[in-house]
Design a protein that fits this description.
TIM Barrel; binds ligand LLP; eight-stranded parallel barrel; 21 strands; nine-stranded mixed sheet; about 425 residues; single chain
């Protein structure tokens, strides 16, 4: 469910016509729907309302302060993976006791920062990281609350770049090694073991890998408890998929039912780290057609957004629906929608049927709210786009378009 809809011939975000937004704010521009964000967060969170839980939005999917602030106001926390994300989360008003910290490569500076902020929990991904966190906590005269991220070796059946819970992936500690690492953690003076963490991959459209992972975790939890190691928190990560094209992912309620069934009898607080399922379909990328051109074998639509703005099609071959923001009855043509970047891999869609477009027409690249702006770059010295939050018939520019001055900030020419 989202709030990008046609009324007559015009595509709206809530009550704001996208054509007007493009004229007033310029393109390319990310546009988010407040009502959709609000709805998606609540649906996910309420699916677990019968059990103690915390929904920690995976802010790598979308880290705009306005969006984080909204989730915080709904009682949410965040899953962070860097000091930069911690900084943003705190700026957005997320309380430290609702922050969990994942990632295989936390630096000493980042660990110290998170310890000083007194976050809820570090999700530790290796034995050496465990030692480092214990050492830093000792140095700073504090105790780090931790979970170990366990790699359950299940196949999430998703794109290989975004599957994380297989033995061959760099993430987590394998389930056999985990008992040893837990035993070691219990010996350490400056860490407090809070529980178990796991995240198996992203854009999962099938529920069975989640259930398989959980079955393995339950066995581990029982063994930990037998060893006298308390499991107060169970962090099940994120990964629930969304509809980009023809997928049929489970609804958050189905996901919750399957998980809760598997957890019967356990009394820990659950943590979830959903990213895409909350924001993916709550945002679009608005772009304008610059030129059209025909080559001997193809028709191209050249738009003002490129792979630096939305990397997913180039990097993963991902599908994003593309809609003209004003409907027309022009003839359908099969085109490649490409950006201005000097790479053949710079495309938003390939061999796509679109009604004929003309220079100046605006297009909406749908389902771009997750891993859209956050993966954008300045490649080809292109300023990053603006971000706009629409609420009802109002809109707010929640991130200004970068300027050319922003592009060279921090650089200098030394006298050699
Ligand atoms: N927790 C951890 C530890 C993660 O690594 C991730 C995503 C999540 C939670 C959130 O997963 P989600 O609910 O969004 O599926 N750039 C890729 C996706 C990379 C996902 C990385 N980790 C894409 O555009 O598809």
């Amino acid at each position: 469910m989202h709030h990008f809809r046609f009324d007559q011939d015009e595509l709206y975000c809530e009550k704001v016509p996208l054509r007007r937004l493009a004229d007033q704010v310029g393109t390319p521009c990310y546009v988010y729907s407040h009502a959709t964000l609000n709805h998606h967060f609540r649906v996910f969170d309420e699916a677990f309302s019968n059990v103690p839980h915390l929904t920690c939005f995976a802010m790598k999917a979308n880290s705009n302060l306005a969006i984080l602030n909204l989730f915080g106001s709904l009682g949410g926390g965040v899953d962070i993976v860097s000091g930069g994300e911690l900084y943003r989360a705190r700026k957005a008003g997320i309380p430290a006791d609702r922050i969990v910290y994942s990632g295989v490569g936390k630096t000493i500076q980042e660990i110290d920062y998170a310890l000083k902020e007194n976050i809820l929990m570090f999700n530790i991904e290796s034995d050496l990281e465990l030692e480092a966190i214990n050492q830093r906590a000792g140095e700073l005269g504090t105790r780090a609350r931790i979970a170990l991220r366990v790699n359950p070796d299940v196949d999430p059946k998703t794109h290989p770049y975004i599957s994380t819970g297989l033995k061959k992936n760099k993430f987590g500690i394998d389930i056999e090694g985990a008992l040893r690492s837990y035993a070691r953690a219990m010996e350490l003076e400056h860490v407090e073991v809070l529980g178990v963490d796991c995240h198996i991959g992203s854009q999962l459209t099938d529920i069975s890998p989640f259930v398989d992972a959980l079955k393995r975790l339950r066995i581990l939890i029982e063994r930990l408890e037998a060893m006298g190691i308390p499991v107060k928190y169970l962090d099940l990560g994120g990964g629930l998929g969304i509809v980009y094209d023809q997928e049929s992912p489970p609804h958050p309620h189905e996901y919750a039912d399957a998980i809760l069934r598997e957890l019967e009898g356990l009394s820990c607080t659950l943590i979830f780290e959903p990213g895409r399922v909350i924001v993916g379909n709550a945002g679009i990328l608005l772009t304008r057609v610059l030129y059209t051109k025909k080559s001997a074998s193809k028709d191209f639509v050249i738009v003002d957004a490129g792979m630096n703005d939305l990397l997913r099609p180039s990097l993963y071959g991902s599908y994003h629906q593309i809609l003209p923001v004003v409907k027309s009855d022009r003839e359908i043509q099969v085109v490649d929608v490409v950006g201005p970047i000097c790479e053949s891999g710079d495309f938003l869609a390939r061999e796509r049927g679109l009604p004929m477009v003309l220079p100046g027409d605006c297009l909406a690249v749908m389902s771009a709210g997750a891993y859209g702006f956050t993966m954008s770059s300045n490649y080809n010295s292109r300023p990053r786009s603006s971000e706009v939050l629409v609420k009802d018939d109002h809109y707010f520019v929640v991130r200004k378009r970068e300027t050319q001055e922003d592009l060279v900030r921090g650089e200098w020419i030394p006298t050699l």
